[in-house]
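Hypothesis: this fold can be encoded by more than one sequence.
Test: take the C-alpha cells below, design a sequence, compare later.
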C-alpha cells in the first residue's frame, strides 16, 4: 500500500487497520511528504472531540490497543508502531542494549536512569505504569531539581525504552475527572513482554535499520534517503 495523496483515513477503525498493514506511521507531517496521519485525514475532524473520527483522540484510544505502540518515535514527535514492527525498531534504536546494560556501559545519563528506575520491578524490565506529572515529580525533575524533563522523556521514547500506554484525567477529592487527558507511560516490556521486544536482538542494528528503510521506500518510493533518515533515524544521545 502506497500512501499517496488520494488515500484518506476516515475513522479509528481504518487507522487501526492501516497501522497493522504498513507497520508504523507518524502522527504529524514530517520530512517525508505524505507519510503521516495528518496528511491523510480531514482537517475539520481534528480536535472535534469525537474519538471515532478525530485523529487527536485516536492517539488516546490506540495507545491502549494491545497490537499498537504509541509514543514520540519519529524525530522526537508522536506516532504509531505496530506490535509486529516494534522489535525491529527496538533493535535498531537500542543497538541490542536493554536500559540497565546501556547505563552500566556509560551510554545513558543519570537523568534517564532516574526516570527509568521508576518503571522496573524485575530483571526483565517489566513494571508499573506512571502518569507523566507523577513521573516528573518522583524522578526529581520538579522545580529546583533536574532540568529538561520533556527532552529526556522524548529521548527515552525515541530509543524505545518507554511508550505511552494510556491517557487519564486528574480527579478531584470527590473522584470526579477534570482537565485534559494526560499521558501515562510504561516500558514496552511491560506491554508486550521482554521476549517479544528483544526478539530481534539476534540481528545487527544495521539489519533492522535496513528492514525499516525498505518498508519506507515501499510506502514512499520517491522520497530521498536524507528525508527518510531524519524521520526514522536517531541521533546519539545520553
Amino acid at each position: 500500500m502506497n500512501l499517496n495523496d488520494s488515500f484518506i483515513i476516515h475513522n479509528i477503525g481504518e487507522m487501526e487497520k492501516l497501522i497493522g498493514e504498513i507497520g508504523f506511521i507518524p502522527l504529524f507531517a514530517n520530512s517525508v511528504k505524505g507519510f503521516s496521519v495528518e496528511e491523510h485525514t480531514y482537517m475539520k475532524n481534528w480536535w472535534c472531540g469525537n474519538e471515532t473520527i478525530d485523529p487527536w483522540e485516536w492517539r488516546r484510544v490506540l495507545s491502549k490497543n494491545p497490537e499498537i505502540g504509541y509514543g514520540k518515535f519519529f524525530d522526537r514527535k508522536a506516532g504509531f508502531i505496530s506490535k509486529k514492527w516494534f522489535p525491529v525498531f527496538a533493535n535498531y534504536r537500542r543497538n541490542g542494549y536493554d536500559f540497565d546494560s546501556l547505563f552500566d556501559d556509560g551510554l545513558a545519563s543519570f537523568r534517564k536512569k532516574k526516570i527509568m528506575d521508576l518503571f522496573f520491578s524485575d530483571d526483565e524490565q517489566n513494571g508499573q505504569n506512571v502518569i507523566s506529572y507523577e513521573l516528573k515529580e518522583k524522578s526529581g525533575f520538579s522545580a529546583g531539581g533536574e532540568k529538561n524533563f520533556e527532552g529526556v522523556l522524548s529521548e527515552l521514547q525515541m530509543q524505545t525504552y518507554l511508550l505511552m500506554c494510556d491517557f487519564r484525567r486528574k480527579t478531584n477529592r470527590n473522584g470526579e475527572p477534570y482537565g485534559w487527558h494526560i499521558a501515562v507511560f510504561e516500558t514496552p516490556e511491560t506491554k508486550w513482554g521482554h521476549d517479544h521486544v528483544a526478539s530481534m536482538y539476534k540481528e545487527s542494528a544495521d539489519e533492522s535499520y535496513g528492514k525499516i528503510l525498505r518498508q519506507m521506500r515501499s510506502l514512499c518510493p520517491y522520497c530521498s534517503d536524507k528525508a527518510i533518515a531524519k524521520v526514522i533515524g536517531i541521533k546519539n544521545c545520553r
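The chain has eleven helices and six strands. The radius of gyration is 18 Å.
Hypothesis status: open.
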